[in-house]
Amino acid sequence: MLAAISRAHGQWDVQESHTTAGLRGIHSVDGLIAWASGTDGTVLRTEDGGSRWQRCAIPPGAEKLDFRGIWAWDANTAIVMSSGSGDQSRLYKTTDGCSHWTEERRNSEKEGFWDAFTFQTQEFGMLGDKKTGVLIGDPVNGRFYTEVMVLGYGWFIDDSSCVSRANESAFAASNSSAFVFGSRRYIVVTGGKGGPRALLSPLLAYRDSTKGCLEASLPLASGNDSSGAFSLAFRDLKHGIAVGGDSTKPIETLGTAAWTADGGRHWAASSKPPHGYRSSVDWYPDVKAWIAAGTNGADISHDDGKTWKPLDDGDWNALSLPYVVGPSGRIGKLRTDSLKP
Q1: Does residue 90 contact residue 83 with C-beta atoms inside 8 Å?
Q2: What CA–CA distance (Å, rounded) separates 179 from 14?
Q3: Most CB atoms closer than 10 Å: which of 116, 168, 171, 340?
Q4: Are 23 and 15 in contact (CB under 8 A)?
Q5: Entry pTM
């Protein structure tokens, strides 16, 4: 067995991925089992905490696809999402540990582009279970493309999807521009010249699917196609973080993080923000802290996003703690011994 840990980078042990693909998809099932995905149809899997990352079979016809998102339930079952124009956005599923794949969905909208698909990560009372998911794409005909899923039952178009503004979109940088609380109960964060906003689905905001989405303004970078909110996460029904900035200005700190304490209805800017653009954020209960990562490093917050301090100056794309992934096959695993408050 090849040793995975070759060197340390800040608070991360960098693991051997055996690939040079750009990685943007990462999902940790339980810390030991994790899946990653990236360019050129790349899917990786570990069952031993990253001591060995296995290169999976490429789904049929996916050799040139960019797998921006991946979600897994165990060592055998996972769904991977490609992002691209039109039918380059697809979903593939495996049930045998990535030896074989079947195509689940293919985008039929010529102008469409899928940005994120994600499932409920924890139990939120009676709102749903971990089999409930959402697929978000850029606006089509003035609304964000939205499908909802219940594992074992299939995907369904959400007829209460959120209305978009002109030049507004979601970002596919880290598969985390949406967060799911339960069936048809989700939040989407946006960017582009028409953003940034946080959009709460009608069932989440009003418990009424006949209403429109609830719009909440986000105090994040705005005004450019490359600016806005790139990622959000919640640790419970009330406390959440949104991160972003301008991806073309990686060292700019203004407008890179915001926090909410009322379930996403109102947001405040971090008084001491991360030290640059951030494309991903995640809550890690093992150290009771938030981690945000981007192309010029990672930061940590112990006060629900009000203030942040730097962890490293690496080049990262996406988080699913304890893992972080980036370009050129880079995978890191968080070293937690010195991070507790």
Answers
A1: no
A2: 28
A3: 171
A4: no
A5: 0.94
Q: Which residues, including other chains, have CB under 8 Å from residue 297's CB and lie 6 or more apart?
A: 10, 275, 276, 310, 311, 312, 313, 314, 316
Beta pairing partners, 135: 117, 147
Q: What is the pLDDT of residue 4?
A: 40
- Those residues with Cβ within 8 angstroms of residue 135's Cβ, 6 or more apart along the chain or in another chain: 81, 91, 105, 114, 116, 117, 145, 146, 147, 148, 149, 155
* CATH architecture for the domain at 5-334: 7 Propeller (2.130)
Cβ neighbours for 6, distance < 8 A, ≥ 6 positions apart = 14, 15, 16
Q: Which residues contact 59 (CB under 8 A, 6 or more apart)?
A: 41, 43, 65, 80, 92, 101, 103
Q: Are 148 and 184 in contact (CB under 8 A)?
A: yes
CA dist 8 and 76 (Å) reads: 30
CA separation for the pair 211, 207 (Å, rounded): 9
- Rounded to an integer, what distance in angstroms lies between the CA atom of residue 192 and that of residue 337? 38
37: Cβ contacts below 8 Å, ≥ 6 apart: 23, 24, 25, 26, 43, 44, 67, 68, 69, 70, 80
Q: Which two tokens stand for residue 263?
A: 């379930």
pLDDT tens for 129-154 read: 668 999 999 999 999 999 999 877 88
Tell me the two tokens of residue 37: 């995905």
